[in-house]
Write a structure and sequence with these properties.
The complex is a heterodimer of chains A (721) and B (250).
Chain A lengths: L13 E3 L2 E3 L3 E3 L11 H13 L4 E8 L12 E2 L3 H16 L3 E7 L15 E2 L14 E2 L2 H21 L3 E5 L5 H6 L14 H19 L4 E7 L11 H12 L5 E5 L22 H10 L4 E3 L6 H9 L5 E4 L1 H5 L3 H6 L14 H8 L34 E5 L3 H12 L4 E5 L23 H12 L3 E4 L6 H5 L5 E4 L3 E3 L22 E2 L1 H5 L9 E6 L4 H12 L3 E5 L8 H4 L3 H10 L3 E3 L2 E7 L2 E6 L8 E4 L2 E5 L2 E3 L2 H10 L1 H6 L4 E4 L9 H13 L21 H17 L4
Parallel strand pairs in A: 3-4, 3-13, 4-5, 4-6, 6-9, 7-8, 9-10, 10-11, 11-12, 12-13, 14-15, 14-17, 15-16, 17-28, 19-26, 20-21, 20-26, 21-22
Antiparallel strand pairs in A: 1-2, 18-27, 23-24, 24-25
Helix pairs in contact in A: 1-2, 2-3, 3-5, 5-6, 6-7, 12-13, 12-21
Chain B lengths: L1 E5 L2 E5 L17 E5 L1 H17 L3 E8 L4 H10 L3 E6 L5 H12 L6 E5 L10 H9 L3 E10 L5 E6 L5 E6 L3 E5 L11 H9 L3 E4 L29 H16 L1
Parallel strand pairs in B: 1-4, 1-6, 4-5, 5-11, 6-10, 7-10
Antiparallel strand pairs in B: 2-3, 7-8, 8-9
The chains are: A alpha/beta (721), B alpha/beta (250).
Chain lengths: 721, 250
């Protein structure tokens, strides 16, 4: 199919200083958990986007010194020539696809606790980080300033050596250069603090030095937060940002513009729950008005019409994406080929970000099960080998996210026939009602994308309104049966805190409800006072609290943890979700466990009260968000009552199960589960995941022995008795 | 008791449309095929009658080239007892009806069910033409059917504006079935596999008589001039709409 001419502007090249980018699609610096120490994972991950049409791809934040060490979070590093070697793989692969490579040179100051390097970070003033409260910076004197500026220069030289076309002097998210610019961080009284010119000095000098070192053939990018939304103490658009842009515009080749500081960077990486796409356009436009250089920025852009509009109305020159490039690395290519239907749109759940926030693991993506698996499992989101056992018919029972994903991938792998059978009238399973919770409308894209793709697959048939019994399955005529029957919320208050049911909990009673009873069955929530018992700790409890409060209920949400919805800290949704609940007058009760329920009353005790004094909350209704249980019954019947032997006699060679019906987990993980089974349906034992490549050092035993011997000899020589 | 259902494998357009060099039809590369939606309802209705009455033979018939057997296989998988294809290149309703006669007449059916129309040609005439050639009464656009297995059938016909016309017709008769009368059943994998192996009887039709029409040219209509396309993001479009309204109100 051909590109719609109205998108032509997105494919026009653009000069970035000495370099030219082939189109307007830019993968902004973002974390993936790979850094410099998993170089192939890094290179495969980034180059997939270049293959998908991105004109430029960036590293994540790239540390310029052991003093900028964010362990347990994974950054890239350019400390030495071995790092250069490792990152050069990424540059080579990007260049192979005609894309530019960018390194986001980063010094974190007090936000980087140096838990691996044990160095002390330096900063403009000695105040502990607002992000890492135990980390104090060393207050920089002039020698420190020169030393750190030299780190930027040396790192830029290494970056150029590795093959990077663009180097950043990165300040956004309250990192060092922006700390100097911002009164909140900079209380200095010398020429590096106080007035705007003084506060701008460090950043300006550093850009000049980096430009001197590599600017002749390497583009200089500056990533800047225009406004930290902190009022006077924070960076402000008019007072700090626009004057800075004007001050250094001549020596900067491209501006990367966003908002927010680090402790609430969900204002930049906006969850779809709170913000639509393009949230930062007004700030990006403000910079574009005062700059003569190209301006790029993100905004969770998935819609090409919005992208075109941003450029045509003078808000951005280049459309940058982070999360939409994770959910679909081939976004530009699909726009180019007129395949808008095939774009796997980001849902703004921030599950990817949550992995970085937790620190350590590779990223994952709810929409794209291959994110993070490009190297270690060799998965390509758009290319599927024909299954060796394609001459089989498959029955997938349950069209929730796991079942849909599995059926879709099996279809793309050429299985002869796939029947996706669902008891309900439409695809979606749990995702047919979760997107109806407040703010979660974009999450419906998980279903919409798969519905469209399955509709296009001639070998996949969706059969709705059919609840199959074990006997139906036995005689259905499939050779492979995959059970994807999902999960349900416990009706007896069973929970991970007490590992027991709650005495008196029984969702069959009119005044007790589970999430599905409310959202699917439409069970009425009686009375006015509602107590939500939330031992889950992710979005379900708080979303229902918001919904019921908006419907006029007086809501209390009770958690055994120190604060509610802990996982939403990692998805950056916590601050705004808490603000919402406060505004709605929801009572938030933490560190309490219910002891028993009786009509009209929830009895609970403080978790640290050894005498467990009884406290009572009045409740006309109780909502049990305590834990989920797998819908195992059908699988158990097939395995335990009918027996796999009997099924074999009917021609069923294998029965698998996927998703929540194995164990309830994140939507991203059940989509992964369905995907993996389909990718490995022709392995020797599909039930067991194939081993994945681990990028780790494997010891050379001869060399190690030599090193150990040498070490021992040195100790002996140094005077060990 | 015998029910004959006449079905068609229809052509379905994808996202892209390209025409054959001769300009007479869409390039087959850009077409997919499926059992006509109306005919699926007709077959389902026959199966429901069989279930209600406890016994009946349901025979699916089509007129077309060998590729059209895909439609018959679907009918067999859904539960038809037998399938017959009339080898044919007929393109218009009258020619198609002439071909179908060759398969229908020998069956001496009690009821002949057809779809009201096909989704690709949309002529809405084959069933009626067939009834004429068979010399049987025809009731068209049936939304509900009641029949005891012999004697007259009562058909509820869908008219404009939500009106229902209730008609009693002697059997044998031809009925054209409207979508919405039922929800065609899905076939299990086993039924599909069994249907793959079932024999489809192929016969030759009369192949005489002039067609109802000849296709001269097929093309996508040119974009009209009555609509002004607005482009841009939501803000841009809103501004343009406001401007147009202000202008027109002057």
């Amino acid at each position: 199919m051909a590109r719609n001419p109205k998108y032509d502007i997105l494919f026009e090249p653009i000069k970035l200083g000495p370099k030219t980018m082939k189109n307007r699609f830019y993968q902004i610096p973002h974390c993936n958990g790979f850094g410099s120490e998993k170089p192939l994972s890094q290179a495969y991950f980034r180059s997939l986007k270049a293959e998908g049409g991105y004109g430029a791809c960036c590293t994540e934040y790239c540390s310029i010194s052991p003093e900028s060490d964010d362990t347990h979070r994974v950054s890239a590093r350019l400390w030495d020539d071995d790092d250069v070697k490792n990152l050069s793989v990424m540059c080579d692969m990007l260049h192979g696809y005609g894309a530019l490579a960018a390194a986001e040179l980063w010094y974190g100051g007090p936000h980087a606790p140096c838990m691996e390097s044990r160095c002390v970070p330096r900063g403009p003033s000695q105040i502990p980080s607002d992000f890492e409260h135990l980390t104090y910076p060393k207050q920089m004197d002039k020698d420190d300033i020169r030393a750190v500026q030299k780190m930027y220069v040396d790192a830029a030289i290494r970056a150029r050596k590795a093959g990077f076309d663009i180097v950043y002097v990165y300040g956004s998210h309250s990192y060092l250069p922006q700390q100097f610019l911002t009164p909140y961080y900079n209380k200095r009284t010398d020429e590096y603090g106080g007035s705007f010119e003084n506060r701008a000095r460090f950043w300006r000098e550093t850009i000049e030095m980096v430009k001197d070192a590599v600017g002749h053939d390497t583009a200089i990018a500056v990533r800047m937060s225009t406004d930290m939304f902190m009022g006077e103490p924070g960076t402000q658009l008019e007072r700090d940002c626009l004057p800075f842009v004007q001050m250094v515009d001549d020596i900067v080749d491209v501006w990367d513009i966003n908002v927010s500081g680090i402790s609430e960077w969900g204002e930049d990486a906006t969850p779809s729950r709170f913000y639509p796409s393009g949230r930062m356009l007004p700030w990006q436009e403000a910079v574009k008005k005062v700059s003569k250089k190209p301006v790029l920025g993100v905004g969770r852009f998935t819609n090409p019409d919005l992208m075109v509009d941003a450029i045509k109305t003078g808000k951005l020159d280049i459309i940058a994406t982070c999360r939409p490039s994770i959910s679909d690395p081939w976004l530009p290519r699909k726009i180019d080929e007129g395949r808008l239907d095939d774009i796997r749109e980001c849902i703004g759940c921030n599950i990817c970000i949550s992995r970085w926030e937790i620190g350590g693991p590779p990223l994952i993506c709810t929409q794209n099960a291959t994110a993070g698996e490009e190297y270690r499992r060799g998965w390509h989101p758009e290319i599927f080998s024909k299954a060796k056992n394609a001459d089989n018919d498959v029955l997938v029972i349950g069209a929730g996210p796991a079942g849909m994903e599995c059926a879709m991938i099996l279809g793309k792998r050429g299985m002869r026939r796939v029947h996706l059978v669902e008891a309900d009238k439409d695809m979606g399973g749990i995702m047919s009602w979760i997107p109806q919770l407040p703010g979660l409308g974009e999450w419906a894209r998980v279903v919409n994308y798969r519905k469209i793709q399955i509709g296009k697959l001639k070998n996949v048939e969706f059969v709705p309104n059919k609840r199959l019994s074990a006997n139906d399955i036995k005689t259905y005529g499939a050779e492979i049966v995959i059970v994807a029957t999902g999960s349900y919320w416990a009706t007896d208050g069973l929970n991970g805190a007490s590992h027991d049911a709650i005495p008196g909990a029984d969702a069959s009673l009119a005044w007790q409800l589970t999430p599905e009873q409310i959202m699917v069955e439409g069970k009425k929530v009686p009375g006015k006072k509602v107590v939500i018992i939330d031992n889950d700790g992710y979005f379900m409890g708080v979303s229902l609290a918001e919904k019921l409060a908006m419907e006029g209920k007086q809501v209390t949400i009770m958690s055994h943890q120190a604060h509610i919805a802990k996982y939403m800290d990692f998805t950056l949704e916590s601050p705004n979700q808490n603000r919402k609940l406060h505004k709605l007058g929801v009572e938030i009760v933490t560190e309490h466990l219910p002891t028993r329920l009786e009509p009209g009353k929830v009895h609970a005790a403080h978790v640290f009260d050894e005498e467990a004094h009884d406290k009572v909350w009045e409740a006309d209704a109780v909502v049990l968000v305590t834990q989920r249980r797998s819908n195992e019954a059908l699988y158990r019947e097939l395995k335990d009552k009918v027996g796999f032997g009997a099924l074999k006699k009917e021609g069923i060679s294998a029965v698998y199960r996927i998703g929540d019906c194995v164990a309830p987990r994140l939507i991203a993980d059940v989509v992964f589960d369905g995907h993996r089974l389909a990718r490995e349906i022709d392995s020797a034992n599909p039930e067991e995941p194939l081993p994945y490549k681990r990028e780790r050092r494997v010891i050379d035993l001869m060399g190690a022995k030599a090193e150990i011997d040498e070490h021992r000899a040195a100790l002996a020589a140094a005077g060990a008795r | 008791m015998k029910l004959v259902v006449c079905v068609k494998l229809v052509k379905i357009l994808g996202d892209e449309v390209e025409f054959k060099p001769d300009g007479m039809d869409v390039d087959p590369d850009y077409l997919e095929a499926a059992l006509n939606e109306w005919d699926a309802c007709a077959l389902e209705e026959a199966l429901l009658i069989r279930e209600r009455l406890g016994a009946a033979e349901v025979v699916a018939v089509t007129a077309g080239a060998s590729g059209s057997e895909e439609a018959l296989r679907r009918c067999l998988a859904m539960g038809a007892d037998r399938a017959i294809r009339v080898e044919s290149t007929a393109e218009d309703p009258l020619s198609t009806a002439r071909e179908l006669v060759a398969a229908v007449t020998p069956e001496s059916p009690d009821l002949v069910l057809c779809g009201v129309q096909s989704s690709d040609s949309v002529q809405g005439s084959t069933g009626t033409a067939l009834s004429e050639l068979l010399g049987l009464p025809c009731v068209a656009v049936v939304k509900k059917l009641e029949w005891a297995g012999s004697g007259p059938a009562t058909a509820h016909r869908e008219l404009e504006g939500g009106l229902i016309d209730i008609v009693e017709v002697d059997t044998p008769a031809v009925l054209t079935i409207q979508t919405g009368i039922n929800q065609p059943r899905y076939a299990t994998l086993r039924a599909i596999k069994v249907a793959e192996q079932q024999e489809i009887v192929v016969i030759r039709g009369p192949s005489d008589g002039p067609p109802a029409y000849r296709i001269r040219r097929m093309f996508a209509p040119p974009k009209g001039h009555g609509a002004q396309m607005l482009e841009g993001g939501p803000d841009e479009i809103a501004k343009q709409i406001a401007g147009i309204i202000r202008e027109r109100l002057k």
